[in-house]
Amino acid sequence: MSQHTVIIIGSGFGGQSAAIALREHGIEDFVILERREFMGGTWLQNTYPGAAVDVQSPLYCLSGEPWDWTQMFAEQQELADYIAMFPGFSFTFRRLTGRFRPEHHAFA
């Protein structure tokens, strides 16, 4: 069974942001768990004409990584472009099976 210092649930904007912050603090022993076969979370899963953020685009900026947004409420592709500029993560899809057993602190 693999063990990691940190486990991040979900590969969306928040999960990727957490991974970036860990790397900035010298922590490389982490895993990102994702239920889908691709990374990116809601912004890559839900596509429809006119998809855009519902809060001001600058709130998506990570500290030290400014972006010159083209509009106050960015469309889906612009947010995807912003996220794509961050360091990549190796990603191997593995479907988790079983249930989390809190008494064992593990999936079984």
Order of H and E elements: EHEHHEE
* Total domain modules: 1
User: Class by helix and strand content?
Assistant: alpha+beta
The strand order across the widest sheet is: 1-2
Query: Helicity range of the residues?
Result: 10-25%
N/C terminus separation: 10 Å
Pick out the low-confidence regions: none
- How many strand segments? 4
Strand content: 5-15%
Radius of gyration (CA) equals 16 Å
The largest sheet is: 2 strands, parallel
User: Quick one: overall form?
Assistant: globular
- Number of separate helices: 3
Q: Give the rounded overall mean pLDDT.
A: 80
Question: Explain this structure to me?
Answer:
Strands 1-2 form a two-stranded parallel ribbon. Strands 3-4 form a two-stranded antiparallel sheet. The protein has 108 residues and is an alpha+beta fold. It has one domain (6-107). It has 3 helices and 4 strands. A hairpin with a 4-residue loop joins strand 3 and strand 4 (106-107).
Brief account:
The chain has 108 residues and is of the alpha+beta class.
Keywords for this entry:
108 residues, alpha+beta, two-stranded antiparallel ribbon, 3 helices, 23% helix
Write the layout of secondary structure elements.
Blueprint: E1 6-9, H1 13-24, E2 30-33, H2 42-45, H3 76-84, E3 100-101, E4 106-107
Parallel strand pairs: 1-2
Antiparallel strand pairs: 3-4
